[in-house]
Every structure is written in structure tokens, then in C-alpha cells.
């Protein structure tokens, strides 16, 4: 099948599906538990758990009923980053806290150093505590939006900080977090900028069919 259709399998991380050199990628459930195991806890505790993800640069005719979203480039610009106080309020929300997987908070020293290195590479000057606060608050904004725009009478939440300060944008892009919104504006995270080479701070529009 892979030989005939060009379908490749993503290994280790979900990011290859965001690389424009890959026309179509299949991500199996176990990939979410590999390199980004902690971040994958959101997937493992979601309604998407156990499902395969297909990321295609072209329409897959005959599979329209399985289509979760269309991702395209956007001209949206971040009005301003959320303040620390705003992030703390979002993360402290009781309803949001009940939805956060316990594994999300289990972070090794090695992972901290890795994310700090990636953040610094993107120009971030945040310390680890503020960086992780930003990671968490950004996910919170796609669950209970505080930062959003209105489009055709609908709420469109967006990423609350610059790429260097974000983590696991794949959760929003691939409808693990915030799938109930008809539209979302998602900024690539630090990892997505470094590995699949997405333009930093260049928002992507995620639209449900």
C-alpha cells in the first residue's frame, strides 16, 4: 500500500505530517507515546485515543466522512502575548484543571533542558516555570477561550504566545484539544519550527468540515 500510494508512516513524533515534503503521512496510536510521551497523554485520554491519524496534502476522495479538519496558512497576527497573570488565571481554572492529564505535569530534567534549549533557539527569554505555565495556558485557551476573535458570529480561539514559548501544537492542529470549535488559529510550537521547519509565529487556520 505504501509503495503504491506514497503513504508513509510517521515514526517517533507527529511532526513529519507537518513537513511540506511529505504528501501523505499515517500516524499510528503508539507514536503519541514515543518521543513526546508526556504531551501524548492528552491524546491517550481523549476520544481520539486508539485512532490512526492521516495527514494529507490532497483530498482523499471517498474518505470525506472521516475528515476532521483542513489546515491552511493564515495572515493572523498575535495582538499581544498573554500576561503571566492571565496565564495563571487560565491554568488555575477549576474546570480546566480537572481535564489536565496527570502525566502532563511529570517532567524530567532532561526534557526541561531540551525545551529550554529549543525556546532559547527561537529567541525566548522565559525561565522554565514561566515557559511551562505558557505551554499549559495555551492549551487551556483552546478549552475555555479567553483569547479569541469573532468570525461570522463564532468564537475562534488562538495561540496566546510566540512560537518559541509554545509546546505540542499538534494537539490543537490534529483536533485532540479544542475539536469543538469550528475554527482555530494555531501557531507552530518550538518543535514544529525546528523539525518540520514551519515558519515561526505564522498562524495556521484549522477548520472543521
Derived from helix and strand composition plus strand pairing, the structural class reads alpha+beta
- Write down the overall geometry: globular
> Approximately how much helix is present in the residues?
25-40%
Number of domains: 2
The percentage of residues in β strands lies in: 5-15%
Contiguous uncertain segments of 5+ residues: 1-5
- Quick one: how many beta strands? 8
Oligomerization category of the chains in this entry: single chain
Number of helices: 8
Question: Distance N terminus to C terminus?
Answer: 27 Å
The SSE string, one letter per element, is HEEHEEHHHHEEHEHE
* Sheet with the most strands, sense and barrel status: 3 strands, mixed
Order of strands, widest sheet = 1-2-3
What is Rg?
16 Å
Task: Look at the structure and give the mean pLDDT.
Answer: 93
How do the strands and helices of this protein lay out in sequence?
Elements: H1 2-5, E1 8-9, E2 24-27, H2 41-44, E3 53-56, E4 70-73, H3 84-92, H4 94-99, H5 109-121, H6 128-141, E5 148-151, E6 154-157, H7 170-173, E7 183-186, H8 190-194, E8 204-207
Parallel strand pairs: 1-2
Antiparallel strand pairs: 2-3, 4-8, 5-6, 7-8
Helix pairs in contact: 3-6
What would a concise description of this structure say?
The protein is an alpha+beta fold. 28% of the residues lie in helices and 14% in strands. Helix 3 crosses helix 6 (128-141).
What descriptors fit this protein?
alpha+beta; three-stranded antiparallel β-sheet; 2 domains; three-stranded mixed β-sheet; disordered N terminus; globular; 209 residues; single chain
Amino acid at each position: 500500500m505504501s509503495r503504491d500510494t506514497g503513504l508513509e508512516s510517521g515514526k517517533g513524533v507527529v511532526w513529519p505530517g507537518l513537513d511540506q515534503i511529505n504528501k501523505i503521512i499515517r500516524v499510528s496510536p503508539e507514536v503519541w507515546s514515543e518521543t513526546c510521551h508526556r504531551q501524548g497523554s492528552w491524546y491517550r485520554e481523549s476520544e481520539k485515543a486508539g485512532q490512526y491519524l492521516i495527514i494529507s496534502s490532497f483530498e482523499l476522495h471517498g474518505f470525506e466522512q472521516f475528515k476532521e479538519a483542513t489546515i491552511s496558512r493564515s495572515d493572523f497576527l498575535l495582538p499581544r502575548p498573554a500576561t503571566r497573570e492571565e496565564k495563571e488565571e487560565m491554568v488555575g481554572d477549576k474546570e480546566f484543571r480537572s481535564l489536565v492529564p496527570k502525566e502532563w505535569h511529570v517532567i524530567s530534567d532532561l526534557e526541561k533542558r531540551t525545551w529550554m534549549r529549543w525556546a532559547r533557539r527561537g529567541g525566548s527569554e522565559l525561565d522554565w516555570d514561566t515557559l511551562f505555565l505558557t505551554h499549559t495556558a495555551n492549551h487551556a485557551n483552546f478549552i475555555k477561550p479567553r483569547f479569541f476573535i469573532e468570525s461570522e458570529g463564532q468564537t475562534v480561539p488562538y495561540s496566546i504566545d510566540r512560537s518559541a514559548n509554545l509546546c505540542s501544537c499538534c494537539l490543537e492542529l490534529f483536533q485532540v484539544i479544542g475539536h469543538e470549535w469550528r475554527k482555530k488559529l494555531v501557531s507552530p510550537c518550538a518543535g514544529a519550527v525546528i523539525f518540520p521547519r514551519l515558519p515561526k509565529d505564522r498562524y495556521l487556520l484549522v477548520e472543521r468540515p
